[in-house]
Amino acid sequence: MSKVLACIDGTGVSPAVCDYAAWVSLRLEAPLLFLHVLDKSEYPIERNLSGNIGMGSREALLEELATLDEQRGRLALEQGRLLLEAARERAVADGVGDSTVLQRHGNLVETLEELEPETRLLVMGKHDENLGEHIGSRLENVVRTLHRPILVTTHEYRPPTRVMLAFDGSATTRKGVEMVAGSPLFRGLPCHLVMVGSDNEESRAQLDWARGTLETAGFEAPAVLRQGEVERVLCGYRQEQDIDLLIMGAYGHSVIRRFLVGSTTTNVIRNASVPVLLLR
Questions:
Q1: pLDDT tens for residues 212-259?
Q2: Which of 78, 111, 123, 225 could form a disulfide with 6 if both were Cys (CB 3.0 to 4.6 A apart)?
Q3: What does the pLDDT look like over 149-172, one tens digit per residue?
Q4: Other CB atoms within 10 Å distance of the CB of residue 1
Q5: CB 167 within 8 A of CB 193
Q6: Where on the phi/psi map is residue 90: left (φ > 0), alpha (ψ -120 to 50), or beta?
Q7: CATH 3.40.50.620-classified regions of the chain
Q8: Overall CATH class of domain 158-279
């Protein structure tokens, strides 16, 4: 059965990741899996120094350093195990009847690719260091690699009460409208539609289709068409309407679309003060 997969790493954003993952799990009635991946390159558990035999005193020093690295790695694994247990207890407090945990010693992206077939939605946190020029290479690599919806959380948990979908008439966002309409995740919550572009007949027709699709599914779906810079318009509308979760399409796959859309995705994630659900 497809699961909600939550990545925790022990940083300040982990509690919010746990709470948002629990919220998603309950709304979707889907099993919850907490994942902790210890990067093998940063935390080696074993190191082979056989190639350094014969180096005299340097060999002894290398062996001592390797032993310290191994101890550091094992302590990090134990810390991760405790983090997973704490996450499971927090999920129970949030109302999740049962959840599972998984710890890996390897590469995060490779682990997520392996788990992708059984993943319905991935929850990850946005770290403080990701608020600069980049959103963080690890998070960006995950977003570009996986083909599952990804909820990127902020540090503070706030149960969503009104959401906003950034709509541009593309196949990705039309599919996003249909996903929202057919999913229990946002059922009962107002879903605002915001389209940024020229006010013409074609844009109005696309926006009317999106609104009609959501309204037919029982959603309250206010829809607006505004001109201006995409990030500024989306952030401005979010503040005006007190939106607490943003839904948008993720990076495109073609080189041109990645250049045009990828930068927008990155900027919105970086600047958003609310969680962002990226649809694939």
A1: 999 999 999 999 999 988 888 888 999 999 999 999 876 554 333 443
A2: 123
A3: 999 998 999 999 999 998 988 888
A4: 6
A5: yes
A6: alpha
A7: 3-42+76-150, 158-279
A8: alpha beta
**Please, is 250 exposed, middle or buried when counting C-beta atoms within 10 Å of its C-beta (0-12, 13-18, 19+)?**
buried
22-27, Cβ contacts within 8 angstroms, sequence gap of 24 or more? 22/90, 22/91, 22/94, 22/95, 22/96, 23/94, 23/157, 23/159, 23/160, 24/121, 24/123, 24/151, 24/185, 25/91, 25/96, 25/99, 26/94, 26/95, 26/96, 27/184, 27/185, 27/186, 27/187
Residues 7 and 123: their CA atoms lie apart, in Å, by 6
Q: 258 with 252: CB under 8 angstroms?
A: yes
Contact 279, 172 (CB under 8 A): yes
CA 229 to chain centre: 24
Cα–Cα–Cα angle for 5, 11, 16, rounded to 5 degrees: 55
